[in-house]
Every structure is written in C-alpha cells, then in structure tokens.
Design a protein that fits this description.
212 residues; 7 helices; 3 strands
C-alpha cells in the first residue's frame, strides 16, 4: 500500500510567512513604543522615600528614579531609536540593530531591579539636608515604580527578540529614498535649428536634428 505525502503549496506557505511577518511587526512596534514610554515615565516618578533628623525634627526625603539611576531612561531612548532604525537597514545591519534593541531592554530591566532597593540616593539627600556628610536616611519606604520600569524594559526586550527572529521578513524603507551612486542619465537639450553647433552635436550623438 502506498502512502502519499502532502506537499505544502508554495502560495500557502508564502502567505503564512507574510502573516507571521505582519503579526510580529505589529507586536514589536507596540511593545517597543509602549516599553520605551513606560520606562521613561517610571524614571520620573518617586522610587523611595525616607527622613533625616535635622535640628531635632524629622525632615522628609524622596528621590525619583532619575536620582537613583539614569540608565533605564537612557536605554529606553536608545531602544526607541533602534526600533526606528530597524526599518532603515537590511541584512546584517538589521540584525545588529535588533540585537541593540534587545540589549537595551535587558539593560533597562537589570538597572531598574538593581535600583529598586537602592538607598544611596536617599543618603546623599540626607547629607545635603542636614549638612552632615555622615548622615543617613531612615524610615525608608519604596514604591513599585522601579518594577514598572522593569516591565517597560521587558517590553523592549520582547520587541528586540521579535526583530531578531522575524526582522528579515519585515519591510524596509523604499529604495526611492536611497541613493545607490548610479549616475542618472542627463536629459538631452532640445536642438535649436538656428544654432549650427547644436545641430552638429545632435548629429554626433546619432540624433536627427530636424526632429522628423
């Protein structure tokens, strides 16, 4: 008894690749843009708070994410730029830009998690407020914003992984916006019958100067 193996139709396979490319592109764009926005927003929020004793009283302190570390915000900007640059390059260049996007996301996650329990920024403010370089903050509390920044980094990382996996299937900028260095043909000037030199030049080019 003979068994017949079904061979996928080339058109159906191409359609499946195109559908996967469209879905991955849409998800990567949404994740990349949302991740960068979330990381930037979270970096501007309060990450921790505390107090320091000044002249017998308690002086409240608070620090933003940008006071703790500027890495998440900086990498979010880099990741957003890499997401846009993915469509401006091809082949190996696209792979490298996609890798940069993924690394930006991973770095944002790591920096945000490391900064979640950081106390040095509060201690610096405590020293400034009290005028005592040895002063430290106490009654510390931390918010969830560092973890929100980490979520933004995770979205950037996901966008980078999608670009690494499916980026070769994504469209690139139109070739009409690129210059390949090929000289463009010059349009021949119309022949003036009243100028003999124009007629001789036309004859040298193999053209009929009478226009007939």
């Amino acid at each position: 008894m003979e068994y017949v193996t079904a061979v996928p139709h080339p058109r159906s396979e191409a359609a499946a690749h195109a559908s996967a490319a469209r879905r991955s592109l849409a998800v990567a764009l949404m994740c990349g843009a949302a991740g960068a926005a979330v990381a930037l927003l979270a970096s501007r929020q309060g990450w921790s708070a505390g107090s320091v004793t000044v002249a017998g009283g308690e002086f409240p302190l608070s620090v933003k994410g940008s006071d703790v570390t500027g890495v998440p915000a900086a990498l979010a900007v880099v990741g957003l730029a890499a997401l846009v640059a993915v469509f401006a390059v091809r082949k190996a260049g696209r792979y490298l830009v996609a890798l940069l996007l993924a690394l930006s996301g991973a770095g944002t996650v790591a920096a945000a998690l490391l900064g979640a329990g950081d106390e040095s920024a509060l201690d610096d403010k405590a020293a400034q407020a009290s005028g005592d370089t040895a002063a430290t903050a106490h009654a510390l509390s931390h918010t969830a914003w560092p973890y929100v920044a980490a979520v933004g980094g995770a979205l950037l990382l996901l966008a980078g992984l999608l670009a690494l996996r499916y980026g070769r299937l994504w469209p690139a900028m139109s070739g009409r916006y690129e210059r390949d260095g090929t000289p463009r043909p010059r349009k021949a000037r119309p022949v003036d019958p009243d100028r003999p030199e124009d007629m001789w030049k036309a004859l040298d080019r193999g053209e009929d100067p009478t226009g007939a």
